[in-house]
Input
Amino acid sequence: MLIFGIIIGIIALTFLVVVHELGHAISARRNGVVVEEFGIGFPPRAWSKKLKNKVVFSLNWLPLGGFVKLQGEHDAASKKGDYGAASFWAKTKILLAGVVINWLAAAVLLSILAVTGLPKVLDNQFAMPGDTKTVPQLVQLSTVKSDYPASKAGLQARDKIVRFAGQEVQTMQSFIDLTHKYAGQTVEVIYNRGGSEATAHVALRSGSGVVFGASLVQPSETQSTWSAPIVGVATTGQLTWETLKGLGQLVGNLANGLVLQLTGNENGKKIASEELATASYSVAGPVGILGVIFPAAQQAGLTQLIMLIAVISVALAVMNVLPIPALDGGRWFTMAVFRVFNKKLTKEREEKIQTVGFVALMVLVALVTVADVGKLIK
Output
């Protein structure tokens, strides 16, 4: 199952990056820019073929992404078919096409889930009145306490309770009532783990205290019919806003933590450490993303996996639209600033700006990756 989870995680992340790059490629061709190569994965190259449209399609050895290579990628390039020779509006469309594709991919996935069952992940999650049915899911174990009956019987977090002592479990309260009804007895528990049912025999503790030893959740899903596309688009918008708010809080925590570290007293430095720790746990790189996708692919089921992919697609869209050098938003921002001040963005200037941005981004990725590994180990 671990190998299966790893494969699904890599495929999911690669898919999101590839559709992002496909957006750039399609927009570039529609705006007269020559696409030289479209690659899945990163070099070294494993295989390639020149297509009828003269684009080189390649498969590369390093997974987790893809790329598109345009003719004359520098803003100062001027030959026919060069990216640099395109108009400002055409360049804007090309740079932001990947963001749009990631956003649309999330909207499509969420629209499909709106029909089959869309998990409720936001307190104010959009629903169309008159075309929404709420479907409660099986009671699920959120955490399992060690050395308690549930743990000793082999039950784990994310296990879904199907039957308890021969009775169907409809709600969390009914489950709690059953555990107390059979306190002190050994009962048969049928549970669902990763889509497969299994049986455990749990020796419940006696008394009025903790007799089972697990905290519970009961997620719900909503189903729609004709309004599914509207629900998908609206939910994507809500997730986009929540992602932006999360980034704002992250920047705020980082800034506040750094200021307190530099200027605060001992109490201020203690608060700063907490702020910086909060910020570090709010960030995830490729390892962290895969660390979430792997268990989702192994245990959570197809619906939760699709939901997670949609959320990550929104996050990729938001990150790429930010004015960070080396990312799409940063390239557009650099181009726009030079245009506003009527300065020529030479190849040398652009390379320096993007190189500095890329190095800073790689340092950040390295730091985040170290933090991700630490969180996964814990």
The chain is about 55% helix and 20% strand. The CA atoms of residues 57 and 329 lie 26 Å apart. The longest helix spans residues 228-263. Residues 2-116+306-377 form one domain.
